[in-house]
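User
New here, explain this?
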Amino acid sequence: MPLSNSAAPRKRWTQSSFTKEELIACGHGLLFGPGNAQLPTDNMLMVDRISHISTTGGTHGKGEIIAELDIHPGLWFFNCHFRGDPVMPGCLGLDAMWQLIGFYLGWKGNPGKGRALGAGEIKFTGQVLPEARLVEYRIDLKRVIERKLVMGIADGTMAVDGRVIYTAQDLRVGLFTRVGEILS
């Protein structure tokens, strides 16, 4: 269980959008502070910008995140997945959704390191090819637990050039403040 052992309240952000530079800073632990939610760095950061983040709105009225990834033929995964048949790996889009839920929990001021805890039903109905231009992620929070247990549960979609191609139900991410409690 993701438990928070921090008694001190943390900064709750009011900023509703984030640039690539700010997301990179988050990956280096500079946005939410050392030991708290971080995004991956370099190639594993699957988001170029967060255009909207809010504690209200979304399908369930509990918060939403809208983020984007610019697509171009030079992206690293097109060179190796697959040779002669380049396509963005589906797991990277799914990971981006988990990344965004962890970011949301940190943005709300919760301490701890984010870890994906699972998902319900996931469907892939399309693919991201090198000629695509834009991927958009939409995360709709269903439940946010902010007690001893810090966890976000959300539904997410990923669209390429305006067409939804991935859907994920009940994505779960927790924040952990002690290394020993992570997934134990």
